[in-house]
Amino acid sequence: xxxxxxxxxLQQGTDFFASEFGIQPAGLWSAPGRVNIIGEHTDYNDGFxxxxxxxxxxxxAARCRTDRTLRVASSxxxxxxxxxxxxxxxxxxxxxxAYPLGVVWALxxxxxxxxxxxxxxxxxxxVPAGAGLSSSAAVECSVALALNELWNLGLGRPELARIGQLxxxxxxxxxxxxxxxxxxxxxxxxxxxxxxxxxxxxxxxxLGFRDAGLGLLVIDTRTSHxxxxxxxASRRRSCEQGARVLGVKALRDLDGIDLPRAAKLLDxxxxxxxxxxxxxxxxxxxTVAALRTAGPSATGPFLSASHVSMxxxxxxxxxxxxxxxxxxxxxxxxGARMTGGGFGGAAIALVRDGDADTVAAxxxxxxxxxxxxxxxxxxxxxxxxxxxxxxxxS
Length: 394
Ligand code: ADP
Ligand code: MG
Prior knowledge:
Blueprint: H1 3-21, E1 27-38, E2 48-64, E3 69-74, E4 77-84, H2 98-110, E5 119-125, H3 135-150, H4 157-172, H5 179-186, E6 191-196, E7 202-206, H6 209-212, E8 214-220, H7 230-246, H8 259-265, H9 268-293, H10 300-313, H11 319-330, E9 335-339, E10 346-352, H12 356-370, E11 376-380, E12 387-389
Parallel strand pairs: 3-5
Antiparallel strand pairs: 1-2, 1-12, 2-5, 2-6, 3-4, 6-7, 8-10, 8-11, 9-10
The site of magnesium ion has 3 residues, from loops.
């Protein structure tokens, strides 16, 4: 995001809070969406993922109250949702407010002895929702960081990531892993985050995209996806079944050498699901190794191989995502893949800076020819994770 549009978002966040609640906020916090460079559906298999925080953010303007009332507003939805700290029940929270209020509930579980007060929260965002860029984690992490500070909870970022995940799993009811929140909280400019989803250890890895004259394009196909619904849950079940039959705690414990045995023991479909996870974990490690030894352009083939695996083995791609990827490759992208949970959402393409416009225009042309909804195509760059913001005027 350019400096000025980020400043605009901060100003908008401040103004929005003031117009909803009739008072100035005590502070502004923000958290970014994320793009996963590689490592899809590996998080709940105790595996590896390599996301970046992107230059699109959700800003929360917040202020403590003197009573126990909670009020949340979002510039993306009409109305103010009001409840009380004493009436927070995961089962009763629905709609968009389940994300911020779910975080309040999860913080109360994590720090039961803390002295909570009511709070007013106003969300403004330029992370597109439902596009696979994890607008949900941007909401959760901005709110978690704000409340951690306002309530003096002293929780560290890895704990806040787990709070966001808990809110999403229990309150929203989406059985997602820890990747999105980790990226949103731990991102750094021009760095990816190598995440070991078993140990929850993370490592920042320099991308070197800027120096190499490379960039990432996001192709949002504007087709819908929902993690809460069947496809995601059934993939998760297949992975659990595969691990059970193969006698391992999680698919993370397998590598390529185990695949022939897996092929004998598993039905065809479960085997392909398992093969995706096993090969994808290896591709994450190969991508990071390529970045360190050969430079960013060497990562392209791993991205493209990841897409094939998701399309054919994990079967979570769609015609729109396949077309985005194949046209990007035909137009000179170094690598391309769908990103996020699948069943719609976005693809990414690694492109030379000078090719970005041609690739974007070419993909749009192919979508038009195919009769698909016009995609939104925009560059993203690896950016800073969640942070407290300075006042727009300062
Ligand atoms: P993704 O995380 O890929 O964007 P999800 O389905 O996981 O998609 O999360 C999208 C949901 O998160 C939205 O439907 C909405 O409920 C919530 N959300 C995202 N951004 C905002 C926002 N700015 N204000 C309020 N709720 C939001
Ligand atoms: Mg999400």
